[in-house]
Design goal:
This protein has eight helices and seven strands; from the N terminus they run ββαααβββαββαααα. The protein is of the alpha/beta class and 259 residues long. About 9% of the residues have low confidence.
């Protein structure tokens, strides 16, 4: 139709091609969105700041750049993404600096991150992350059910929360005799933990609001899972595919979380 709108033959309603995506009701040209996505996927460490985006795209205001950036971060979390399968290492990462594997572990408050890593021998294929208020059987069961395919084998060091989850085999990690937290961890998760903490520190020197932490974890998981791809073009194409599958969020709802 005129003004580049689509017409539904059933209800006769006219809609934009960007309706139902993160680009919904955006006044920015598609060229600007594509430039932003290209810049976003081109950063080796995934660290993109609103001030840089404002300057590179000449957006005119920091608020516009901030809203655009957080829409892109939301698009990093792919809806209905394939669950992990096979042997999956599961562990928790405490970002508050508390000691893991000691009495009182189940009462840790935010920021606590659950991580699941799909294994290929000693290498990590894909990861999934989720921040939770506290670690208990209910949160662990929900995380496993959402992130891991049934019939898979869970490799976890915790003897309580990941025990006897229906539909999953258990490959218990031997803790050893050393009572220190380091000896009680699933060794493979240390790779994810060190990279995540270093990356979060680079993001605004670690000053990330807890309500936004889930989006940052999605960005990190996307970058981690795509680390083998050397083609920025493939990253760009994959990101655009995810972006058009993300439901829209009103700009005022995004800005209200920060400003």
């Amino acid at each position: 139709m005129k003004r580049e709108l689509w017409l539904c033959q059933g209800c006769r309603r006219q809609v934009s091609i960007t309706s139902g995506t993160i680009l919904h009701d955006s006044r920015l040209p598609l060229r600007t969105w594509f430039r932003a996505i290209w810049h976003f996927t081109g950063q080796q460490d995934g660290v993109v700041r609103a001030a840089d985006l404002e300057r590179k795209l000449d957006l005119g205001s920091y608020r516009s750049a901030w809203a655009l950036l957080h829409k892109l971060r939301r698009a990093m979390v792919q809806p209905g993404e394939d669950r992990l399968r096979g042997v999956v290492a599961v562990e928790e990462i405490d970002l508050s600096g508390g000691k893991m594997g000691v009495k009182g572990q189940l009462t840790f408050k935010m920021p606590l991150v659950l991580v699941a890593a799909e294994m290929d021998g000693d290498e990590i294929k894909r990861i999934r992350l989720r921040n939770v208020d506290e670690l208990n059987k209910a949160s662990a069961k929900a995380f496993v059910a959402d992130m891991i395919e049934q019939g898979s084998t869970i490799r976890a060091s915790d003897p309580i929360v990941y025990k006897n989850i229906p539909g999953y085999a258990r490959d218990r990690c031997v803790r050893g005799t050393d009572p220190s937290a380091e000896a009680m961890r699933v060794p493979i998760i240390r790779r994810v933990e060190s990279r995540l903490k270093r990356w979060l520190l680079e993001m605004n020197l670690g000053a990330i609001a807890q309500r936004q932490l889930g989006y940052y974890l999605g960005v990190f998981a996307f970058r981690f899972n795509c680390h083998a791809s050397l083609s920025q073009g493939k990253l760009f194409h994959g990101f655009v595919q995810q972006a058009v599958a993300i439901p829209p969020t009103a700009p005022h709802a995004i800005l209200a979380r920060h400003f």
